[in-house]
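User: tokens in, sequence out, please.
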């Protein structure tokens, strides 16, 4: 059974930083693209960042480009999201997700991800 467990969320002041982690098990982690998404209250879940199975490709939402960095350690079955220069509008529950297809093309579409973590709350105060 595939499990994704996020950690690292919390409360931070605007301009601060947080590093989210997502530990994966139950699947050959190194074969799958991994994504980060977020959902703010009253809004739909939205794409944040994706990294290819081997770490060679990364893609970001325009709203976080230049501030967030996605990375992965396939030896530790973990994907990370380093978030710098945080803004109040970054406040949301952040989810990691695993692409449904091994060695697939990176995608921003939620329907292309078949396993999701439980989410971790990030709150940025102004």
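Assistant: Sequence out:
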């Amino acid at each position: 059974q595939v499990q994704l467990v996020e950690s690292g969320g919390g409360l931070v002041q605007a301009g601060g930083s947080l590093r989210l982690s997502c530990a994966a098990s139950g699947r050959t982690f190194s074969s799958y693209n991994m994504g980060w998404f977020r959902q703010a209250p009253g809004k739909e879940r939205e794409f944040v960042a994706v990294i290819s199975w081997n770490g060679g490709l990364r893609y970001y939402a325009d709203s976080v480009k230049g501030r967030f960095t996605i990375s992965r350690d396939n030896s530790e079955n973990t994907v990370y999201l380093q978030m710098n220069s945080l803004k109040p509008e970054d406040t949301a529950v952040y989810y990691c997700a695993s692409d449904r297809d091994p060695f697939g093309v990176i995608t921003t579409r939620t329907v292309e991800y078949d396993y999701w973590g439980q989410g971790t709350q990030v709150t940025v105060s102004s």
